[in-house]
Design goal:
Blueprint lengths: L1 H6 L11 H23 L5 H31 L4 H23 L6 H24 L4 H20 L2 H9 L1 H17 L2 H9 L13 H34 L1
Bound molecules: retinal (RET).
């Protein structure tokens, strides 16, 4: 009877040297904690910043739920939860694009900018999924299309429409925009590197065998929580500035 119950146990075993499983676990907790932090701090800000903080909370909350499943999937099957990974991204990355729009609204950003960024991010992720999970033989082609969409996003925020709006806004908004731009250029670049290191026959030795999921997990923690904290910082500075001015 004792054995039967043990065999029916719903918690998969975790090997002490399973560092991939470890990063899934810690990632899950970090996303949960970040989501609680953003949600609970929301009401301390001026009304116009609350939506931005809400979105930071949603990004980390959605990631926490996916990490819950990915952690379990990995522990049970010992393989990459590629499907859950991309469902997570296709929900959270467009929300990160919304975040750009929300902070630039003070400078008169139009919805069209938001939709452009969202569309590019969806193209980037759907084509990436094709290359990573569906048409592996054509990984170079889908990776290229995905990369072009990625560069289009980088262009718009660094040099295009979004940049001009940020300059018009100036002050704390411009500073936050610049930091988010660096996240997209450097933080997001982790993912194509992971893709290349994870595609068989490409650069598998690149990270001296470091698992692709570890790379993605570290990238997610930096990008999703870091992104949210930049917005949190902006809301804090802007809200206190407005109170001082009043
Ligand atoms: C929270 C999750 C984030 C910020 C995920 C971002 C993902 C990317 C920027 C992925 C980009 C890719 C390429 C640019 C080419 C190869 C395929 C991808 C999807 C890994």
């Amino acid at each position: 009877m004792g054995n039967l119950i043990t065999n029916l146990s719903l918690v998969a075993k975790m090997a002490p040297d399973d560092y991939v499983g470890f990063t899934f676990f810690v990632g899950c907790m970090a996303m949960m904690a970040a989501a609680a932090f953003f949600f609970l701090s929301m009401n301390q800000f001026d009304r116009k910043w609350r939506t931005s903080i809400l979105v930071s909370g949603l990004i980390t909350f959605i990631a926490a739920v996916h990490y819950w499943y990915m952690r379990d999937y990995w522990a049970t099957n010992m393989e990459s939860p590629t499907f859950f990974r991309y469902v997570d991204w296709v929900l959270t990355v467009p929300l990160m694009c919304v975040e750009f729009f929300l902070i630039l609204r003070v400078a008169g950003a139009k919805k069209s900018l938001m939709w452009k960024l969202i569309a590019l991010s969806v193209i980037m992720l759907v084509t990436g999924y094709f290359g990573e999970a569906v048409y592996r033989d054509a990984a170079w082609f889908w990776g290229l299309v995905s990369g072009i969409a990625y560069f289009a996003i980088v262009y718009i925020i660094w040099f295009g429409e979004a940049k001009k709006l940020a300059e018009n806004a100036g002050g704390a908004v411009l500073k936050a925009h610049k930091t988010l731009c660096w996240f997209v250029l450097v933080g997001w670049a982790i993912y194509p590197l992971g893709y290349m290191a994870g595609t068989p026959g490409w650069y598998e030795g690149w990270f001296s065998g470091l698992n692709m999921d570890v790379i993605y997990n570290i990238g997610d923690a930096i990008n999703k929580i870091g992104f949210g904290l930049v917005v949190y910082n902006l809301a804090t500075m802007a809200s206190s500035g407005e109170k001082a001015a009043a």
